[in-house]
Design brief:
The complex is a heterodimer of chains A (250) and B (308). Chain A is mainly alpha-helical and 250 residues long. Chain A is built from 10 helices and 2 strands, in the order ααββαααααααα. Chain A starts with a helix and ends with a helix. The radius of gyration of chain B is 24 Å and the shape is elongated. The two termini of chain B are 37 Å apart. The chains are: A mainly alpha (250), B alpha/beta (308).
Chain lengths: 250, 308
């Protein structure tokens, strides 16, 4: 009961702190919409044969949702957590009856909400300004986004535990995220990639997010994406166990 | 709490070893209810390791610890409800507002005090809406004290409370700590300022190389030295030292340039020196007395100065 009250307060304060950090706000809420605007300028949304008659932006919107998930999971969450650990903020939390799992739960809830907000902004912009096509089911898509976000946040917490410092966490985040962005088909459609790259791409976690969200966006059912769902569930399960087990206050 | 003798903290033969050093080497002490107990010693003497074992954050390699009748390592969460901690090195997110920090930490405990009252008490009521990043070092330190008091704890730990503060903030901090004792709370503090220990603590343990070398009230520690008091003055020109030696209780007289130091038993030393000088029509200046301090006690016990 005490931990519930702590959790509620933590979520409110962490959300405020998140929104007071301009870099985090930019990459969570504005980066993907800005990319979309840029692509709109360059390519417009005219039908392209390679995408089965869909436009560049139709294909980009669900893929950019994966950027939001990747940025928060691989960069913002581990960097913020290691920064706090390094500065002694977590140490201060430790000297209270607050349990590590409560702290993590509050953190994850806030990151999760921010991811959803960022994706919502992106979708709204795509639908209203660029009349992007959406053929899917909103609930199924939400489920896919939730699973992907949860899996990447678990991954982020694993990184935070493994990284000895905020600097290392930043470096690892960059090293993982930037190639993932290219290899997962976010920036360049997988349809354009040579087979050798496609082979590597299958082992990039973010690829499965892109494939899943794109599929759901265009009306696939979850059943048609059992591979992606299974991979993401696996990441979520293993990541959560490692993260919970290896979390360090200092 | 052990009501028979009001022992709040009991440490027996505490040993803590790191890979190649013994940080704490068989330390034993008790802290009584309502006192300010200080642990002083140079950096690296084992103060912080000891206090963190008592807080439950480090597992001892040997010995036993009881805090408010709990085992700090096993009953960690239970103990945290009853104690307040100010760390030597800890932080809050820079973008959190003062009131938000207090409000947040209050939610971690079963019972807590009103944070507005607490802010008043530490003299930062007008800062409640300010970001932590905008506070001075002394103000931040007060906020950390407030966080340590938010659950109305029975026992408060203050680790190197005034390190890095200017003398004025340091004095203000001492008043705060005395205020904590007045509320009936017990305080366990560490410091490497001998003056701080002397002014603030009811009892002091002097720790060096992981061992307690003395433990008593500051006054008893100083008295136990049997150290001489000193009367210091300066004279211009010749001084006949013989009459000074004749003063009852005087042990020796030193002269370094213009400066004369008379060592002797406390009682009657100043009067004796002044009378003697007057009687000899000696023109003297800058006369002052020096009492031994905890600094001298440390020097006598360890053979080293307590400088860092």
């Amino acid at each position: 009961m005490g931990q519930m009250r702590a959790l509620r307060k933590l979520v409110v304060i962490q959300a405020k702190l998140y929104l007071r950090e301009p870099i985090g706000v930019f990459f969570t809420l504005l980066f993907a919409p800005l990319l979309l605007v840029l692509m709109g300028f360059i390519f417009g949304n005219d039908p392209v044969p390679m995408f089965g008659g869909r436009g560049q932006l139709d294909v980009n919107v669900p893929a950019y949702a994966a950027i939001v998930i990747g940025v928060v999971g691989l960069m913002i969450a581990p960097i913020e957590t290691t920064t706090r650990r390094e500065a002694g903020v977590l140490r201060r939390f430790r000297a209270t009856p607050l349990k590590p799992l409560t702290y993590m739960a509050g953190d994850v809830l806030v990151y999760f909400t921010m991811i959803v907000l960022g994706i919502l902004l992106l979708f709204l912009l795509g639908r209203t300004v660029y009349q992007v096509q959406f053929d899917g089911n909103m609930l199924t898509l939400m489920a896919g986004i939730s699973l992907s976000a949860a899996a990447f946040l678990a991954l982020g917490y694993v990184l935070a535990s493994l990284a000895p410092s905020a600097r290392v966490a930043t470096a690892i985040g960059n090293v993982l995220f930037i190639p993932m962005m290219i290899l997962s088909g976010i920036t360049l459609p997988l349809e354009m990639m040579p087979t050798a790259v496609l082979k590597v791409s299958r082992f990039v976690p973010l690829t499965h997010v892109v494939t899943l969200l794109r599929g759901l966006w265009f009306g696939d059912s979850l059943g048609e994406h059992m591979l992606e769902v299974a991979v993401l569930c696996g990441i979520l399960a293993v990541g959560t166990i490692i993260a919970a087990w290896s979390f360090r206050w200092e | 709490m052990n009501m028979q003798n009001d022992i709040v903290v009991e440490v027996r033969n505490l040993v803590k070893q790191y890979t190649d050093v013994v940080a704490v080497d068989g330390v034993s002490f008790e802290i009584r209810e309502g006192e300010i107990f200080g642990m002083v010693g140079p950096n690296g003497a084992g103060k912080t390791t000891t206090i963190e074992c008592v807080e439950g954050f480090r597992q001892p390699d040997g010995g036993s610890i009881q805090v408010l009748d709990l085992d700090p390592h096993r009953d960690g969460y239970k103990l945290q409800e009853l104690i307040g901690i100010q760390f030597q090195a800890a932080a809050l997110p820079p973008q959190i507002k003062v009131w938000e920090a207090l409000d947040l930490f209050a939610a971690f405990y079963h019972s807590s005090v009103n944070w507005r009252t607490l802010l008043d008490q530490i003299g930062l009521a007008e800062k409640s809406n300010v970001y932590l990043a905008k506070l001075s070092g002394g103000q931040k330190q007060r906020i950390f004290i407030a966080l340590a008091l938010i659950n109305d704890p029975d026992l408060v730990f203050l680790d190197e409370l005034t390190t890095g503060l200017d003398p004025q903030s340091r004095r203000a901090m001492w008043d705060l700590v005395r205020g904590i004792r007045q509320q009936g709370k017990t305080v366990f503090l560490t410091t490497h300022f001998m003056e701080e220990a002397e002014r603030l603590c009811d009892r002091v343990a002097i720790i060096d190389h992981g061992k307690i070398v003395a433990l008593d009230t500051p006054q008893n520690l100083i008295n136990s030295l049997g150290a001489e008091n000193r009367v210091v003055f300066s004279v211009n020109g010749h001084l006949d030292e013989k009459p000074l030696h004749a003063i009852p209780g005087v042990i020796r007289v030193e002269r370094i340039g213009e400066r004369v130091v008379v060592y002797g038993q406390k009682d009657g030393l100043v009067g004796g020196v002044v009378n003697t000088l007057e009687a000899g029509s000696v023109r003297f200046d800058h006369l002052r007395t020096e009492q031994p301090t905890l600094e001298d006690v440390f020097l006598a016990l360890t053979g080293r100065e307590m400088r860092n």
